[in-house]
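agent> step 3/5: call structure_predict on target 'Monocarboxylate permease' (Crucibulum laeve).
agent> reason: downstream docking stage needs a structural representation; sequence fetched in step 2, passing through unchanged.
tool.input:
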Amino acid sequence: MSENSLDIQEVERKADIPLSNSGVIVKIESAKETDSNEAEELSFAEGGLQGWLTLLGAYINAFGVYQDFYVREYLTNYTPGDIGWIGGVQLFLNFSLGGITGRLFDKGYFRHLLVAGIVLHALAIFTLSLSHENSYYQVFLSQGLCLGFACGVIYVPSLSIASHYFQRRRSLAMGIVSAGSALGAVIHPIMLNKLFNGPVGFHNGVRISAGLNVALLIIALLIIRTRPPRKQADTGKNFPIIHFLRDVPYAVTVIAGLLTFCGLFFAVFYLQLFAVTRGVEENLAFYLLSIMNAASVIGRIVPNALVPYIGIFKLMGIFSVSLGVVMLCMAAVNDAAGAIVFAIFFGFCSGAAVSLAPPLLGALSKNINEIGARIGIFFLFASVLGLFSTPIAGALLTSDYHWLHAILFAGVRNVLDLYAESRLIWSEIQITMLAAGICYSLAGYLAYRQIRRAENGDS
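tool.output (status=ok):
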């Protein structure tokens, strides 16, 4: 087999490593064959990394709490579309910076990125606590920009680090790491709702959550140990975007990711507000985000555990299509029971779609020192949709809460017929999600062909 060929089966056969709740000793072998075939033994504190990701993902997903509070209480002079730009910009920065931070992670700057993220996170939340009611620019600068930068600095490196310690069980390891974010998001929205709508109020509530988050980040900084990158010959590819996109399976996977992420975060940001406007009691609506993220914990672990038996490309295709179908079902929700069922199914499917992406990209990597860059570039392209999809959905929603229009934007691209008076929707399954499923299957086939050609060339 040639030096640069991709052998997914060989990667999956290596390093049969058990997971534990404490630290484990693991062996990491270079993706390229060496004469000595030596392995390095390193200690991986899974609990610490998982706790850090719990914090990070909690703040990303918890914007749904802010969205509801801003629309109904704090930024009442602005439309849902205007407010949606706050979350859209935060989401854009969270993903788009991965193109830079992923490359820095591959070069060994993980701890530097984490320290920068802690400082920016503390600054963002503290300035948000000083903002004034109906002062849009203050909220936008502190939460949209500064917090977006803070999350973006550490998001892709935090996902990539697990891939340095696991090979055959890489998907399961990354799924557990990703589940940490959903687990934190179960608790964080409940805490924010109780603080914002109780005697503590918005400003002090933000300060309390900031203190908790920064404390967890500092603990993570103290307990996370990273594996130094292997030294490689300088290839001159300091900006490898074009180089990676020439890899056809990777390019097709990026296209599939763009289709999958289109409309993905609409329900995350607007679920609580949607439930309240549909007559669900506020006390119950407050828990919908936690219910959704509890289901997401399962969705981020179970599908990843099935990867060795079904295949990661097949699973991504299945859950991309399923996510589109579930989004269409949101239009039929009219009571508390329907909202809970939707939150459970959406949480499971979205958790699977999000958590399967990083290990899929890791499987396409030629060596371990380019995993961070490949994941970062993938999220860089996906971030463009995150920037525009949420504000557009908010604009379609309007101040009169025309949920049907926004749901159709998030969940379907080709409407066959629409009876507005009876609110019956006859439409095709979400075209973008269906196309994403096809693209993931095509990428898997192309990767397989790439392996076979390399093997035939060496035989």
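agent> step 4/5: record observation. The chain has one domain: 8-31+40-231+239-458.
agent> proceeding.
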